[in-house]
Amino acid sequence: MSEAFQIILLAVDSAIRLSVPLLFACLAGLYSERAGVVDIGLEGKMLIGAFAAGATASLVPNPWMGLLAAVLASVLFALVHGFASITQRGNQIVAGVAINVLASGLTAILGNAWFNQGGRTPQLPSGARFNEIVLPFAESARAIPVFGAIYAEVISGHSVLVYGALALVPLTWFILYRTRWGLRLRAVGENPAAVDTAGLSVTALRYSAVIMAGILCGFGGAYLAIAQSAGFITDMTAGKGFIALAALIFAKWRPVPALGACFLFGLLDAVALRIQGVSFPGIGQVPVQAIQALPYLLTVVLLAGFIGKATPPRAVGVPYLKERS
């Protein structure tokens, strides 16, 4: 296997790992915004989920308990967002920003108070994390040219949350386009008055979408804390919720293109990590800060120049007020 091919395989493998939290958050925003609720709070819900997962797994060294805690914490924040946006008909963007600020402050304060490690949770042992799964025949397949290396290096060796995130893409497509609930969810994001006229509860449908978003953000947070890393660190989401929103717009609110968009942003992040410290002819070594900003800069460039017209659901961001007869 050539060195160039090996580098490509490692970059793709890294891109998959880095795109998983983006994919969870992107699908979360897809459910919420398809129902008409703008979800700026993806970042905060992932962050509180990551903290809950790391804190729980440090006390109860079981990754499934950490995942459960992450989902519960994220859903709780999602319900707060739903209460402000749906029940109280508040400004959805302001409510989402408040969720982000609350999660950032709360995780730092609780982390420092409970563990006294500057906001971090203790380093997790292997048994408290979702470890890599080696698929059948992965080692023996390495001898097969090209396809064996792809199977062993790229397809095999990921945690259960990675495979779960990939499986969620066709599942989300099926739910949204082939189930009654999905049809109603898309309808309430386009024309809530028509849904209300049909005798369905706009409030209940939007709350169900917000709860689904909370569950998926919990999965994304748990992946960051107890799969990709070995514990929680302060503000470990590092803007991934906002990049997931950009990926959602780039995918035009569709699940399958969302996978491609998240992988693209994950690949940009992977490339940025790999070129840190590399000297370029005529330029020299690029500052680390510039390399770290590369994925965010390219996100703006892609959204500004390559996305084309992206039309969101017509009722997104608009609180629904039931007309009185």
Rg over CA atoms, rounded to whole Å, is 21 Å
- State mean pLDDT (0 to 100 scale): 88
Give the uncertain stretches in residue-range form: none
Largest sheet: 2 strands, antiparallel
Q: Helix content range of the residues, please?
A: 55-70%
Class computed from helices, strands and strand pairing? mainly alpha
Write structural notes for this entry:
This protein is mostly helical. It has one domain (3-305): ABC transporter involved in vitamin B12 uptake, BtuC. Helices cover 68% and strands 1% of the residues. The chain is built from twelve helices and two strands; from the N terminus they run H-H-H-H-H-H-H-H-H-H-H-E-E-H. It has helices at residues 3-34, 42-59, 63-87, 92-115, 147-155, 160-178, 180-190, 192-197, 202-228, 240-250, 255-274, 288-305, and strands at residues 279-280, 284-285. It has a two-stranded antiparallel ribbon. A hairpin with a 3-residue loop joins strand 1 and strand 2. Helix 10 crosses helix 11 (255-274) and helix 10 (240-250) packs parallel to helix 12. The model has no long low-confidence stretch (mean pLDDT 88).
